[in-house]
Amino acid sequence: MTRPRTARAADVWRGLGALTALVLLFVAVPVGLYVVGGSPIPNGLPTWSQVSGVLMRPDTDHSLFLGAVRLIGWAAWLLLVVIVIAEVIGYLAGRPVPRLPGPARPMQYLARDLVAMAALLFGTTATLTGPSTTPAAHAVPIAAAQTSVPSTGSAQETAPSPATSAAQPEGKGWRTRVIKRGDTLWSIARREYGAGRLYPRIFRASKNLDQPQGLPKLTDPDHIRPGQRIRIPHPADGTPPHQRNVQRTTPTTGQPQEQATGVASPTPTDPAPDAVPPTQAPSPQRSSHPPSTPVTSPPADHGQTSAPQRVDSERNDAPPFTATLSTGTHVGIGLATAISIAIAAARLQRRRRRTYGDTWPNQPAPEPVPPAAAAKVRKAHLDTYADQNEPIPTDTELVEQDLATPAPDRLTLGVRDGHEVTVPLAGLGLGLDGPGALNVARAIATELLAKSHRDRATLIIPEQVAKALFPKADLTALASAKPGLVITPTPAAAITHLETETIHRARLLDNADQPNVAALRAADPSEPLPTLVVITPEPSHALHALIQLGSRYAIAAIVLGPWPAATTLHITDDGTTTQAQGPHADALTGTRLFKVTEPDAHDLLRTLCTAHSPDDEPAPIPAPRAAEPTPSTPATPGPAQTDEHPVKLHVLGPVRLEAASVPINTGLRRSARELLAYLALHPNGATREQVTAALWPDRDPETTPMALHTAINNIRKVLRQAIGLREPMFVIHASARYRLDPHLIDVDLWRLETTLAEARQAADDTDRIHALQPVATLYTADFATDLTHDWAEAHREHLRRTAIDALAHLAGLTQTDHPDQALAILEQALNHDPYSEPLYQSVMRLQAQLGRSDAVRRTYQLLATRLAALDAEPDDQTHQLLDALLHRS
Fold first, then answer.
1. Residue 606 has pLDDT above 90, yes or no
2. Is residue 221, in this structure, part of any structural domain at all?
3. Do 549 and 644 belong to one domain?
4. Tens of pLDDT, residues 582-593
């Protein structure tokens, strides 16, 4: 939908006013100066005696003063004319004019605004008179759109504009980039060259580079700062680093793999093959991305439109991550990771507010179940860790990794020929056409909303587009729950919102002397400048003009239909691009794009909204399938459960086996570990249908019996070899049910459940205290931390709540007579739930009761530090409690 006719008419009047002002400046001003003061050019050069005589005699007739005014007027007019001409040339060439010194800067702003507003006349009259096949390449809809880029001299490479980038060869032998938070020279070299050991190349090329004001030069590879500029030399074969096809590091060791064809061998000036990274390189940490996630090549220099990239996986045998649901939804790693983080954040927020011990000995309320689509996407994401034998990140680790995630600068659209296809987000113009366009737009919108928190991205959509993408959503509630979502009444209002943001960003960049939004983010991370993405039903000249500035101001636009001035994709029902026109056509033709169906989008949005509004629980979820029964409480084991069991099964923490006190580290299949954990939850046994539905819900029912028999055979074979006996069965099949043999296998979970059952049956508080004391020793870790099944996660949360309820109840029973013991028990509970604010309040009360004021302060600070990982802070109630306890002491 184009802008309203009244808005276009206003643009015309503004353009006419600016053009009139320019005409007056070039014609009327010099005529007036000539009439009033005469020509500024003298008839001849004055002699020294004439000059000295004029200066020495009294200016009684004010001729000297009027002459000075005349010269100043002509000089100011000439300077303004030169500035206007420079702005016009820069505007036509698509290059910003360097900012002038302070006294001349207001005149430059005036000239720039006049030129920009006059351009409105040529950009909008075509719209009023009739449609144009291609919008003007340099239509600028706002006055301050062409804010200058500071001149940095020869030491800084200015990113070319889209209009000139194609004509600029890579002849300098290097390119520049800005250091971002978390970067190291080792990691940059690994991304650019495929080998981190080549980081001295970058250091040698960058150590004499002039840096922005306030930042020192690069003198030590171990100490780099966000905002510093570095040069990345091209390899010896001349290929720009960001266009090379290299293999990434191995996911397990972190060492660089052998480089692909085309990567130059280290020269004599390069480091030796055993070079180590700078000491600043961070120690290995768990990432929110799975080990097999393709590492996206770094973005091109900001301000330059780069082509889509097909990104190789870290290993040749590891295809890009995708998750396909039975409903037709097909998503990539970006959205899957965001959903995992959202579920983790919501769960931690609920744990933060939960009060323990009040309901004992009753069972705790069940944990809300994520919507089906979100749960499946999360499981697919976490399974990638298990597939690579990597530890599955905890909820805390996922949220902490999210805190360090930068604003999105590229958008992964899909997969083609075993490679992810990504496009730069800033300056992206994309038209989606065909029967599959809406599902693809829904996937893009959902992923951007998932990454919008903490001012990383803002999605701007008109109300009619929002209803088409999310018809089941309450748009008012959705916009309120997602700060990164702006829903406008009309498409024209969405464009106006973009124009306002562009003006604001232009002023910020000019005041901060930064070339683009990415550089400003690095220089001042506290400035909230999210990437702006608008989704509109139709293209317009004003939208095209904004996209021309998108690379600098971090703006992207998606149109639900053809967009001749940008890249247009024709998408089939299955999400495949059959035809493409525009700058990215070659790379995107034949790509299977990510897509989200309407019902799944509703489920994913509910999950995302719950993550950052934890007080609003999700809508009721249908009950679990009958094939996935709630874990039963084990019967009290008989006298055979002693330390003499030949096999010990540990399901608290990662699932692991011991035979004759020796860990079994090899030979056990993943499916066998999952079966052992499931049967540990069902000591009375489970039917074949229950087991196969829980372990292989998406597999063909005809193949699941064989998978079950294979897992049981693997368990028996491994355990028989470990203990040297051939007769034991270990997994018993009787009365159409499978169960673990309690006479041969000792399960740590059964010991804990037995203790809790005995405590519930205690006759009085004294017996209950005695029964509950072993809980702190028996509950050593969460249930099956290396499993991702829904039933495993459900019991993990149930067991945590149950055990901490028991510990909190035990502390309440002992705090009167033994406050020191109660304090130790609560601290043990905090080890298992470090985010429960009520637990911290109980600890602070006990510390105050014992006269430990300093400990009260330290406990409050510990709570504040841990909640900071959730982007939260202690409640006012906790702060008031702190003040009351300190004043009382």
1. no
2. no
3. no
4. 888 888 999 999
Tens digit of pLDDT for each residue in 528-579?
Answer: 789 999 999 999 988 988 888 888 999 999 999 999 889 999 999 999 999 9
DSSP, res 393: P
- The string of DSSP letters for 623-646 reads PPPTTSPPPPPPPPP-TT-STT-S
Contacts of residues 402-406 at CB distance under 8 Å and 24 or more positions apart, as own/partner, are 402/288, 402/341, 402/345, 403/454, 403/869, 403/871, 404/181, 404/182, 405/288, 405/451, 405/456, 406/180, 406/181, 406/182, 406/456, 406/521
- The reply to whether 490 and 639 lie within a common domain is no
DSSP, res 319: P
If asked whether residues 435 and 568 sit together in one domain, one would say: yes
Look up the domain containing 450 and give its range: 315-598
CATH code, 333? 3.40.50
- Same domain, yes or no, for 537 and 430? yes
CB 425 within 8 A of CB 600: no
pLDDT above 90 (res 856): yes
Residue with tokens 């600098």: 552
Whole-number Å distance between alpha carbons of 347 and 354: 11
The CATH number of the domain holding residue 772 is 1.10.10.10
- pLDDT tens string 182-224: 678 877 887 777 666 678 888 888 877 877 766 778 887 777 8
699 with 693: CB under 8 angstroms? no
Query: Are 656 and 717 part of one and the same domain?
Result: yes
Look at the chain and report how many structural domains it folds into.
3
**pTM, to two decimals:** 0.64
Strands 745-747 and 174-178: unpaired
Position 638 scores a pLDDT of: 40
| CA pair distance 60, 53, nearest whole angstrom | 14
Nearest to 657 by CA among 696, 732, 714, 734: 714
Is 97 a domain residue? yes
Amino acid at the residue 746: D
Query: Contact, 97 vs 90, CB < 8 A?
Result: yes
How many CB atoms neighbour CB 160 within 10 A?
17
Mean pLDDT over 742-746 rounds to 93
Does 403 have pLDDT greater than 90? no
Whether 462 and 486 have beta carbons less than 8 Å apart is answered as: no
Q: Is 642 exposed, middle or buried (0-12, 13-18, 19+ CB in 10 A)?
A: exposed
DSSP-based three-state secondary structure for 310:
strand
Residues 839-859: b if buried by 16+ CB within 10 A, e if exposed = bbbbbbbbbbbeebeebbeeb
The DSSP line for 712-733 is HHHHHHHHHHHHT-SS--SEEE
Same domain membership, residue 564 and residue 688: no
d(CA 696, CA 627): 11
Q: Which of 334-348, 535-549, 600-614, 873-887 has the lowest mean pLDDT?
A: 600-614
Q: Are residues 588 and 709 both part of a single domain? A: no
pLDDT of residue 168: 33
Q: Which of 112, 129, 146 is the last residue of a domain?
A: 129
Are 251 and 291 contacting, i.e. CB atoms less than 8 angstroms apart? Answer: yes
Q: In this structure, what token pair is assigned to residue 518?
A: 């990415």
Per-residue pLDDT reduced to its tens digit, 633-660:
444 444 334 457 899 999 999 999 999 8
Q: Are residues 587 and 629 in the same domain?
A: no
Choose the final residue of a domain: 803, 825, 855: 803
Whether 707 is covered by a domain: the verdict is yes
CA distance 688 to 738: 7
- Angle, helix 199-206 to helix 185-193, in steps of 10 degrees: 110
Q: Which structure tokens are listed for 112? A: 């720039």
Q: Quick one: which of 194, 189, 215, 446 has its CA closest to 335?
A: 446
67 located within any domain: yes
DSSP, collapsed to helix, strand or coil, labels residue 532 as strand
Q: Where are the beta strands (DSSP E) in 491-646?
A: 531-536, 555-559, 567-571, 577-581, 592-593
